[in-house]
Queue: 3 jobs
Job 1
Amino acid sequence: MLQIYNTLTRQKEYFRPLNKGLVGMYVCGPTVYGDAHLGHARPAITFDLLYRYLQYIGYKVRYVRNITDVGHLEHDADEGEDKIAKKARLEQLEPMEVVQYYTNRYHHDMEQLGVLPPSIEPHASGHIIEQIAFIQKILDKGYAYISNGSVYMDVEKYAKDYHYGKLSGRNLQDIVTETRELDGQDEKKHSYDFALWKKAAPEHIMHWPSPWSEGFPGWHMECSTMGCKYLGEQFDIHGGGMDLMFPHHEAEIAQSCAALGHDSVRYWMHNNMITIAGKKMGKSYNNFITLEQFFTGKHELLTKPFSPMTIRFFILMAHYRSTVDFSSEALEAAEKGLARLTEAYTRLQKLQPAATSTIDTGGLKEKCEEAMDDDLNSPIVISHLFDSARAINTIYDGKATISSADLEQLKAVWKTFVIDILGLKMNNSAGNEQHAEAYKGAVDMLLELRLKAKQNKDWATSDTIRDRLIKLGFNIKDMKDGFEWSL
């Protein structure tokens, strides 16, 4: 039975959904004002893995992943210029042009990475009416106040009735100590109060009418509102990066408890960070590498281009709750590991059954399920697949045999875990199948010419073809009845 680590309780818990047949899952999506980077890829792939596995074990999943297109301010959750509005001003575009452009690019990157689309992808700007209604509930309960046309959460008053800080493990006194005073926040009762609605300055591009002012919702409000709208007042899983735990997710809990009288989420899940030289990768640190730069190799920290599947495999090789430190060398190691897995998968399809099995290939399905049930332990799943790959290679090399029934079972398990659950595409090209077939045909043709040259004792031509292919990164293996190659 699936166990997941609940950030709220800080322990692994058996997953028991509210509705036996339907799982409600909400994941914080991107703020679409720039190209996606590796830090965006990790939560997308982590929760794609969970999404796929929940469906594999028999659940229907309503997966909601939001698009933040308003209210995420540049300097602070409550202060500064809207990130999308700033991008629009600098590039002389309408804000929604910026949103559409980067949303399209995000979708393209996610498709390249094999990330399945969510069931629902709501935009914050499309749910202003619902957010205003949610804020009014908080005001009616007495946990918010109006100041100069803005609405703020009264954290001190809320903390008298509820535990503010329970997700991040903080208490209010810690938060008071850590919260710095910022210019322009004198309209708050306390510096740690956060905005539910902000009155728009005259130069602010994105604003809507409300009972309190012409303005826009606070960044935290969208997730509380859209989670409840599409998944109900109580739903199963809320996920995102660990950097969102405080203040974003902590604020979400406060908003939901204040408006509804209870927390909306049963299981909180957070993936850990990707770092560069021990420092978090992200736009705020100006040390990020975009996914397009990974795919093209056009960045000073990259030694070469890396395919989307290499990026996905690199992320899956580490447990989602562990920190992953990026380096081009680590990606090259992941690339080699993926090549080994791809080669084994290709060989598996070519195996011919025998009357009996002389090698044990059983138990793989159970081992992989056990690893996935242990808080989505994808590195252990991959290690089991590598163990199985050794058996496949032994059979392929003619040193063992496999029966028809065992072969079909092995093929089914590899397809399930490699393709359906890990989401890896097993081909030699990042392009479509037609491109991959043409690519394979061209290499085969060169090696057939080399084989013909060898038969004619034209060693110079034979050696030239071999040496040039090796220099381009191919592994060439001469076989008794032909040849074999891989990248």
Note: The radius of gyration is 27 Å.
Job 2
Amino acid sequence: MLISTFKHEFKSRGGVLLNSSVILFRKPLELWNMETGETIAEFKGNDVEVVLDYELDGKKIRDIINGWSRMPVIALHKRGGDSGMSYTHKGIPLGGGGGSGFESRDLNARFNALFGKDTSFDKTLEAFRNAHAGSDTEHGITVDAQGFVTQYIHGTAGEVMIAGGNGEFVLHNHPKNGWPTFSGGDLISTAMEPSSGIVASSSKQGRTAETAQYAGDYIFTKTPHFKASSFVKAVKTANLKGKDYNDAVNKWLTANQKKYGYVYVYRPEQ
């Protein structure tokens, strides 16, 4: 990837994952280790040029970027269906199911042809629910502000590799063997990408009574005041408490909307 291309794309992002654990945040410019929770380096100003000659594992960041064909994509994960009468945890787990998160790319027209010009976000979400809310594997689409699908990707049983562009929403499903609400991977990916938000859809079909009670659509929307770096750090260190994983994450996301600048909505399956 050309450095000029990186600079242009980085302006619309919350950050970028440079390797398996190190994030470069945009505001403020900071290198942060996602695994240890430690700041590696902080930089003055907003010009990413000051970061490019910093060495990470013996390699300049500009050389790392030059080796990319495109911006890295963080897979969207389901969170496994661990059970228990109560749930207490430090940080929202990333989730995941192994594999590449990518099985095949499909035709956008499978959705766009359903409504023609008379489409909307809600119509496309309903169509996606009908197609995949009850699936055994993960699937994802990206939707623009008018409701038109711009990507359609089939993933694996545990994850799907998809990212939205400026002004787009990412819609994906969580299969029946996982919790319906977001995983940490879903939230961190959304915070870093230029997309406007993310939806996790699920169905009661085939679920245990424990997870079926939470089936529906979980909608996370970034506001103009969204604090990407602070939110990612909070996701990794959140004090989760609830009767189960789904309940604990719902409580945390509901309580922290104003603090980090997002809107969180749960629409139960009817």
Note: The chain has two domains: 3-66, 76-268.
Job 3
Amino acid sequence: MFSTALLFRLTCLFLLPIVPACEPMVQLSQWTDVPMIGDRARQQFILRLEKEYADIYGELPWITPEQADRAEKKRAALLSRLAPLAEWGFHGTKLDCRDLSPGCRLCGEGLWSCLFINNLCTGGCFFCPSEQNSVDNPTTTTLVFNRPADYVAYLETFGFRGASLSGGEPFLTLDRSIRFADAVKRRFGSDIHLWLYTNGLAVTEDSLKRFAYAGVDEIRFNIAATQYDLGKVRLAIETIPRVTVEIPAIPENRNVVMTKIHEMAEIGVDHLNLHQIRGTAYNCSKLASRGYSFLHGPRIGTLETELTALSLATETLESGIDLPINYCSLIFRNRFQGRGNRLRFASIMKKEWEDVTQAGYIRTITMEDGTTGRIFRNERNADHANLSSSTISLSYFAATVHPRVTYRNPYKEVDLAEGARVVVERQRVAGDIKLPPEEAALFQKLFILEETNRLTREDILDRLQTLPNSGDSVLMDRWDRIVECETIPWGLLEYF
């Protein structure tokens, strides 16, 4: 007899949505010009941040148009220098992709779970996005896992191939962190890549050996918390199979980091990851006091940290230093981690007549016919239908996971282990987008019959020029909504 949980897992294997994979890595020369996003998307970003940070939005140092113009030129110059040396990946949002950590690849592919093992840290870093002053319970994507067995069942049920322990600081709750690491590796072994994040302050030789014995594959050090001291990094290199330095690209520390890059290469660090700093309600005043300029986007980005990361990558590659360097942009994290979450749960809430888009949304196509009424179609038969003869209506939904039922959306409960369960909900994100026959035919060609993995917004706008009333604002608004739900945009985010 199969258990309910096992039957569910087997079913998911057959129902996983078929979506285009990430594009092959491309030469950077293709992305020296940053694509423009649509006016609607730009305004949405601004309105969302105005609402989220209503109390402080007007006081934040947002980039001015003049600053944006100068910064765009500076970024373009850096990208031109990088062009013959580096490769973009993940739709032009991450470099250098020639030698990424396995964990970074799994993150971009949507196959990584980050477990926040606690909410406790003694680093006191100015760039930390939240206050870290409580042990709390292990959490990920709103879910709480008090028992390692429940977290292992979650990883198995939803097909993760990478997992990490973060915090806070995993070494401050050492026994708990070891229990979770040991449980994950005992169940999955080499089938899952497991890594730790740490600032190194509480790291000891004994604790490193315990994590190594538990099977941890990689450890990532934020040496910005220790004045860029590499002592604990050296210790880890002798113990853990893969050692990465992962730090925010702090502009005022650029020259110190460049010196340390030489030292990292000499001692055998495997990877250097540079992050763009994100502004939050907790750290915005600290970032502003350092003179950082804030950028609109899905989250608050910081201009100077992106330019610093690109500058460090440029000098490292031009110098021929033997250290793989990776710039992790905020827009990469938003687009690909968000896509991964949507894809992971979409198969559970998708109906048989629906499909999952490249961006990870569930799509419903409704055909309206005067004689047969409403006919639902999906990709496997819509490509045989002539959409140019009918008006169609599009709706898009996102599948999200919750610890319990919210009663706001349709849902399904998923059993994990020993009574533990999670809830997956289906939330409408765009609906009743009506396309007349000419637009329906173009939609079919762009998103059903053609390979859309390399389709940019500019490509789609060019195709729209063939339609009657192509400059109409209402038409452009509905197509911007379609593009947002169908595709992952290409390139870094423009400055505004």
Note: The chain is about 40% helix and 20% strand.
